[in-house]
Give the backbone structure.
Amino acid sequence: MTDAPLPPGSTIGILGGGQLGRMMSAAASRLGLKTHIYNDTPDAPAFHVAAKTSVGAYDDLDAIAHFAGQVDVVTCEFENVPAAALEAAGAAAPVFPPVKSFEVAQERLAEKDFISGLGIAVAPYAGIDTLSDLKEATLRIQPPALLKTRRFGYDGKGQARIHTLCDAESAWESIGEAPAILEGLVDFERELSVVTVRGRDGAVRFYDVVENVHKDGILHTSTVPARIPPALEKEAKEIAGKIAEALGHVGIITVEMFQRGGAAPALAVNEIAPRVHNSGHWTQDACLVSQFENHVRAICGWPLGDVTRHSDAVMTNLIGSDAEGWRHYAAEPSTAVHLYGKAEARPGRKMGHINKISPKT
Ligand code: AMP
């Protein structure tokens, strides 16, 4: 592979056809780049805005290899892409982010071990394979605690709360007795994230730290600037940079953190996402170059774009029937509406978001 940037007219292959792939594809088009999107079902929101589409299973390695053979670089819009699919794609085209970023982010125990191995604070945790592991860890970590499946958890799914030792058995059953981790519940003041981009040449840039509010386990709002002192903003970015560097990451990586109340150290990392992230959607309207464009730039070997925030912003997700209010949002001043083109508004489904912009404070 050459280090020369992919010129306009090149094609980016994206594994995954959800809203993240859709917005990545739109950003690529601004740079004169095309996208070819691979998804396991034909009703993919990203298919509406792609030059080429393929439907196939993520474990159909021949189909993945064929897809990768038609593009100049491959990336992913979700982290649970099977390792074999990344390998099959990698034999035909360069794949960014690197496999290591996915391996770490796909498995909560590996993720916690990796992050704490870098000397970065995380919640107290233990790997759980049996009910007796869980009982023992519950005694050690002390409830309240959260039992989370190691794989395939997102938006609070695959999680059970443990308030007392008596909850261990029902929690274990409720997550299907799958390999898990137990995490002590962090008494946090606020949740933060750092959307970070790292280029193929190792250059790193950070968007401003975001303050996130979740509702029913799903991101509800992301606000910038976060209400934190400059020293904490700097520390959060340093943590994100350390993780991106240690992974040799290329593209956007998002590091989610808790700001603890009271005792030091103030920040503890919750998890990492080796991709563009919902908490970075505000960058579309409050920065010159969005997270989506910067991901595209990074994987294509382009110079990274300006991450400076020119406005304050509040991003609000439109979940389920919220999106029915599109007319109202479209008429609101200083508000950008982003809809994902999904036909059916099921409860809990991300249908779109709005970015409300105000002058930078
Ligand atoms: P996760 O799937 O790990 O991102 O968890 C989803 C949400 O659950 C987080 O954004 C937090 O609001 C909450 N959460 C997860 N882990 C913890 C923890 N150890 N302590 C407190 N809250 C947590």
Remarks:
- The two ends are 44 Å apart (CA to CA).
- The pocket of adenosine monophosphate is lined by residues 123, 146, 153, 156, 183, 185-186, 191, 214, 217, 270-271 (CB under 6 Å).
